[in-house]
Amino acid sequence: MLCLGIESTAHTIGIGIIDSDFNILANEKDTLTTEKGGLVPKELADHHYEKFIYVLKKALQKANVSLKEIDLIAFSIGPGIGNALKVGATAARALSLKLNVPLIGVNHCVAHIEAGKAFTKSKDPIVVYASGANTQIIGFQKGKYRVFGETLDTGIGNLLDSFGREIGMGFPAGPKIDENYFKSNNLIELPYSVKGMDLAFSGLLTAITKIKNKYPVEDLCYSLMHTSFAMIAEVTERALAHTGKKEVLLTGGVACSKALQKMIQEMCVERKAKLFITPPALAVDNGAMIAIQGIIEFNAGNKTKIINSAINQRFRTDDVKVNWI
Ligand code: FE2
Question: How wide is the angle at C-alpha 74 spanned by C-alphas 70 and 77, nearest 5°?
């Protein structure tokens, strides 16, 4: 069985083709990047419409299959930016009807988790899902992926990108900030706000923006990452203690940060937990993870009727009924 997965929740239009053993035959994408400003919903939709056919052709070519050989269409039904989600959903419906194959709308966050688990072979982890828009500490309990802690304002990736824009790094700034992290160990004191099990990053952004001209860039990058990642590590450690789980899985675009990996690894060593890191191509937003989730849900008997395939911008991780574990 071949599943074609479409990702379009935010800046990336991605198409992956997967077989039933989760072999990735193709995982092609095109990401909108900007020098200034954030993500403008209309520009995202224009980008995704413009690039869809190009990415689809590239994916089919890479997988060396024709559209007729596809048995299942999966797409991100939410959460995400409405204009962007609609492009993927519209294309998915059209392909499902044209090819007369089943359609599955999957939760983007759960797809991150399951793709990470499938690839790293972790069994029952506390998941650190750290991306531009999302920052959640998640674990499976009683039939659902429970969100033990999450950001109350901006995602960790947005925090890093907003700061990057303030100092003229362009978008995405995360990789450049990550490089600078390892050039300093001068910690500037910044607001550390863990509220219960939740996190808040906007005060941190305000504070570091105010002092951006007073310190070298590498000290600012080091301090911003050290403070925000320590907050994430603290909540992750408490989720491990609460659940008794012994694995941590890092996923989402910010999982590519070497600084985050280092800090979570140090916490895991102290707690005798094992750290699993989703490989970069599967950790960032991509179509292959949507296709993996499509196959998992299809095997569990799930399908999405066209009439039920409307996007859900606020589709929460803990709203998903997990009938495949
Ligand atoms: Fe994502």
Answer: 160
Helices (H) and strands (E) in the chain, counts: 10, 12
Ion ligand 1, residue ranges at CB < 5 A: 131, 285
How far is it, in rounded angstroms, from Cα 251 to Cα 253?
A: 7
Q: What does pTM read for this prediction?
A: 0.94
What SS3 state is found at 168?
coil
pLDDT, tens digit, 9 for 90 and up, residues 194-203 = 999 999 999 9
Phi/psi region, residue 70 (left: phi>0; alpha: psi -120 to 50; beta: rest), is beta
pLDDT, tens digit, 9 for 90 and up, residues 26-81: 999 999 987 666 678 999 999 999 999 999 999 999 999 999 999 999 999 999 99
How far does residue 215's CA lie from ligand 1's centre (Å)? 32
Neighbours of 307 (CB within 10 A): 6
| Residue 220 belongs to domain with CATH number | 3.30.420.40
Q: Which domain, by its residues, includes 298?
A: 2-112+283-319
Task: Express the helix, strand and coil content of the chain in percent, nearest 5 each.
Answer: 45, 20, 30
Would you give the end-to-end CA distance of the chain in angstroms? 21
Task: Compute, in angstroms, the gap from residue 284 CA to the centroid of ligand 1.
Answer: 6
Same domain? 225 vs 133: yes
Number of domains, the chain: 2
For residues 269-293, give the mean pLDDT: 97
pLDDT at residue 37, rounded to an integer: 64
Decide: 14 and 286 in contact? Cβ < 8 Å: yes
Q: What is the mean pLDDT of residues 295-308?
A: 98
* Separation CA 125–CA 127 (nearest Å): 6
